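User: Hello, can you help with two protein structures?

Assistant: Certainly.
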Amino acid sequence: MRNTVRIILGLVALVFGFLTTYLIMSTKFLDTVAPNLMVGSVRYLVMAGGSLLFALIYIIFFRFLIRHGSALIQTIAETITKKSPAQIIGGTVGLLIGIVIAFFISQLYNFIQINLISTLLGVVTYIFFGYLGSSIGFRFMEDVQQGFPELARRFQAKSKGHPVHGAMPKVLDTSAIIDGRIVDISRTGFLEGELVVTEFVLKELRHIADSSDDLTRVKGRRGLDFIKELQEIPGVTLTITSKDFPETGEVDIKLLKLATELKGAVITNDYNLNKVASLQNIKVLNVNDLSNAVKPNAIPGETFMIEIIKRGKEAEQGVGYLSDGTMIVVDKAKNRIGEDLLVEVTSVLQTPAGRMIFAKIKE
C-alpha cells in the first residue's frame, strides 16, 4: 500500500513538474535570457530536465505537506474553536474584505509581461491581504466584546440557542474550579446562564499546575481538565474572557470587579471571598452551601444505623459519618468504636463547615 502511494505521489509530482516547466517555457522569459535553449532538440531536453527538477521539488513539498499538514490543520482548528462566534464572524468578514482588496490590487500586475511573476505576485497579494483582513476582523470583534460585554453575552447566547434573559452570568473562581463539583452540577442542568472564566484565573491555575509540590501540581492540572470538561457539556455556555483589571493585583478583587461589571454572581468555595462579596452586595453561589442544602434532613426522633469511627471532643462522645459525609456525634459511644449502633437523632446543628447531627444510642 505504501509503495502504491509513493508511485501515485511520484506520478502526480511528475505531471505538476511538466506543467510548471511548460508554463515557464511558454513565456518569453527564457527566449530573452537564454535563446539557445529554446532551439531544436535542446528545447526538448530542457523540457525533460525541467520536468524532472520540478517533480523532485514537488515530491519534497508533498512529503513535507503530508508529514506536517495534519498538525497544521489541527492547530488551525484548535485556534478557531477558542474564538467566540462573534470573533469567527468578524474574521470571516475581514477575510472576504481582504480578498476583495487583493483582487483590485492584483489587477495592477497585468502590465507585467512575464505571466509567472504576475501570477506569483497575485498569489502573495491574496494571501497577505486575506490574512491581514481576518486578523483585523478577529481583533476588532475581540475589542467590541471587551467594550460591550453585555452585547457580547447576548450574541453568544443566541448563537448557542440559550435563553438570553432570566439568568445572570456566573464568574468561576480558582477554588470552585479545582474543587470540580461545579462540573457535576452543570451536568444536571440545574445551573442556568453563562459561566465565565477569566484569563488571569487560567494563569493562576497554570502556575499551580507548574508547582514543585506534587499535590499542588495535581490540583492545578485537575482544574484545567475541569474547564475542558465544562466546555464539552451540552447546553453549558462557558466563556473565557481576557477582561482584566491591571490596577488591581489581587485575583479575588478582580473577580468581584468583573462580577459587578457583568451584573453577575461569583461561584466560589473560598470563605473569605464569600464574606467580602457579601459586604459589597455581590451575589455569591457557594458550592459548599449547595452541597449542605441537598443533604437529607435529619428529624429529631429519627433512627438509623451508624458505625462509630472515633472518639468525640467531649467526654463519652463517639463520632460516625453518614454516606454523604455528615458528622454524627453520638452520646455515650466513646467505648463503642468499630461497632454499628442504632442511634436516635436528638438535634441538628448547621455550621459554616456543614451540618452536624447529635444523637444518642437507641436502647
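That covers the first. Now for the second protein you mentioned:
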Amino acid sequence: MKTKLCVLILLIILLVGGAQIASAQTPPPTIIAFASSLDEIRLTEAETGSETVTLSWRTVGVAAEHRLTLSTYRQNRWSLVFDEASVPLEANGSRTVTVEHPLNFGPPTYLLSIVDAQSRILDQRVLIIPYAEETEEPAVDTFTADLTSVDVNALAGATARVTVSWQVENRPPESNLVFEQVFADDSAVSVELSRPTLWVPSVGSGPVAPIWRQGEEAVRLRVRVIDLVTDEVLAEEELSLDITGTLTVIPATPVPTMQPAAQPIGVPGGNEIVTFTAAPTTVNPGAAVTLSWEVRGTGGVTVEQTVPNIMGSSTVVSAQSPKGTATVYLPDYALYSATFTLWSANRSDSASVEVQVHCPYTFFFGQGDGCPS
C-alpha cells in the first residue's frame, strides 16, 4: 500500500513538474520572418496600383488572446491594410495585396504587429519594398490647361484659377513636380495652392493661381521635375495662355520682385503653429492635462494622442478656434507617457508635446518600469 501511494505521489509530482516545464518553454509572441514576393517595384507601378505583392510571415507563441495586424505607411502615418472586421490574420500565413504608393518620398513600407487584447504591441517587424532604378530619362509627356485665355481683371484681383493636367514618365522617387508662372524677363514665381502633402503625383490635374504683372501679354505656366536632393531640373514643359480684357480693377497684390526660380518650391501658404504647450508635464495615471495652442491662420485644429506600446492614435481635441485651451485626461493604460500632436487645419504644420506619467505607488519587489497595476 505504501509503495502504491509513493508511486502515485511521484506521478503527481512528475505531471505537475512537466506542466510547469512545458509552460516555461512556451515562447513569447515573436515574429520569426516577414517576407515579400517582390524584390523591387517601379515608381510608376506603385502610383498606378498595377502591381500586387504577396506578404508572408511566420510567428511563434501566438495564442488565442493575441492577434496580428498588417499596416502600411501612407503620407505621415500607419494605416491598417485590413480593417478590424476582416478575416483575422493567421499566426503563420500570407496575404496578397495591391501595392499602393505611400504619397510621400519613401518606398512602399509594411508593418506586421502582434498585439494583445488591450492593443499593446508585443512584437513588430517592418518590411520595405525598394524602388527599381529608372533606366530612361525623365520626361513631361503632356502639360495642358482647361483654358486658352485668362481675364486680366481676374489676374489683377487674385481670383484667376487655371486647371492644369500633366503626365510625367520615368521620374526618380526623390523628385517632385513644381508649378510656376514665368515672366518676360525669365523670372518666375510659384502658382501652387496650399495642399496637405508635398508629394505631387506623376499623373494628375489641379488648379493653379497665376498672378497679374504689368506689361505681360500672356500667362506662361511651367511644370518642372526637380531632384529634391541635388536641386537638378530633370525635365520641364511650358504652356501659354492669352490675357484678355481691359484692366478696370486695382491689382489686389503688389508686383513682387521676382527671382529666377531654379530651386524646388514647397507647399505655399497654410496655417502656422505659433505655440503648443501642455501643463503639467508630469502627472499621475489618468490625471487631467491642459493643452494650450495658438495657430496663425484659420480653419481650426485637431490634437491627436499617442501612447507608447499602443498602436495608432486617437483624436482628443477638435476645435475651430485658432487659439484656445482644452482639458483632456490620460487613459489608464498610459503607464509611461503620452504624446499630444497638434495639427493645423490643412495638416501643413504640426507640433508635439510629451507628458510623463509619475507613478504614485511602489513595486512590491524594488523598482520597476512603468506603474504597477
